[in-house]
Amino acid sequence: MGRNKLQRFEENAVNRNVVQPGKEIYEKIKGRWNQFFQNENPLVVELACGRGEFTVGLARVRPANNFIGVDIKGSRIWKGSTTAIAEGMDNVAFLRAQIEQLDQYFDHGEISELWITFPDPRPKDRDEKRRLTSPRFLGMFKKLVHLEGSVHFKTDNTGLFEYTLDHLSGRDDVEVLKMTFDFYDSEWKDLHHGIQTRYEKMFASKGEKIKYLHFEFIPETKRQK
Q1: Which of 213, 210, 162, 151 is nearest to 185 (CA)?
Q2: Which end of the chain is less crowded, N or C, counting CB atoms within 10 A of the terminal residue's CB?
Q3: Alpha-carbon distance 173 to 62, whole Å?
Q4: What DSSP designation does 185 have?
Q5: Residue 195, pLDDT above cutoff 90
Q6: 146 beta partners
Q7: Mean pLDDT in the chain?
Q8: Looking at the domain that runs over 3-222, which CATH code has it been given?
Q9: pLDDT in tens, 7-23
Q10: pTM for the structure as a whole
Q11: Helix axes 53-61, 74-86, angle to 10 degrees
Q12: How many Å apart are CA 138 and CA 4, to the nearest integer?
């Protein structure tokens, strides 16, 4: 293991805005994120956040929300963690955990807004259950995102985007609010304040069209009969 990586792990261990194995809060955080942030502001969660560019970027322009980036790689979230600390941002945190276990760290309805940004497309059929927009994950997200909350999805991968649309179209508990196969040529391009992840910049520089989807889960009482 490289010296820089070891140093990052050591800093993660003491940085208050990193919730990870080995810290007492890690086993007790479920349902207590507002206590962690010491306010009742809505929780916005980014999955597979990597270095946290998007998490930190949104937190800069939306100080009335609390932002949590989730990734299993400690060396990645170190970047976002240290940036937030250097800028004195107290509305940013990072959770080091497997996304498959997200319901171990968030209670039902605890999340206000969920972002799925450039996940691994998992193109092989045998990996379908590991796609973050598969029925398996959507079922979990539905429980964790509160009834007035929403889900954002961005990807460069057309196959994954179409797969997601197909699954959402077959559900009566989902309403698609925004959808485009070319985000930067859409009416919504300014809604993200120009914030891009490392992967988004890389894909866009290669001429890839960025796909974007914004949807919400519909409570049973509001569904069309």
Answers
A1: 210
A2: C
A3: 28
A4: G
A5: yes
A6: none
A7: 93
A8: 3.40.50.150
A9: 998 889 999 999 999 99
A10: 0.94
A11: 30
A12: 37
Q: How far is CA 99 from CA 140, 141, 207, in A?
A: 10, 11, 29
With 0-12 CB in 10 A as exposed, 13-18 as middle and 19+ as buried, what is 68?
buried
**What phi and psi, each to the nearest 5 degrees, are found at residue 71?**
-160, 155
What is the rounded CA–CA span in Å between residue 157 and residue 108? Answer: 30
Tokens of 224: 């069309």
pLDDT attached to residue 220 = 74
- Find residue 180's DSSP bridge partners: 212
1 has a pLDDT exceeding 70 = no
71, 94 contact by CB (below 8 A): yes
Other C-beta atoms closer than 10 Å to the C-beta of 22 total 8
Amino acid residing at 208: E
Cα–Cα distance between 15 and 213 in angstroms, integer?
34
* Mean pLDDT value across residues 152-169: 96
Q: What letter does residue 42 receive in the DSSP assignment?
A: P
All structural domains of the chain with their residue ranges: 3-222
Helix (H, G, I), strand (E, B) or coil at 154: strand
User: What is the mean pLDDT of the segment spanning 84-99?
Assistant: 97
Residue 3 pLDDT > 60? no
Residues involved in catalysis: 120
**Alpha-carbon dihedral 35, 54, 167, 157, rounded to 10 degrees:** -160
Measured distance CA(203)–CA(207) in Å, rounded: 7
Looking at residue 87, its pLDDT comes to 97
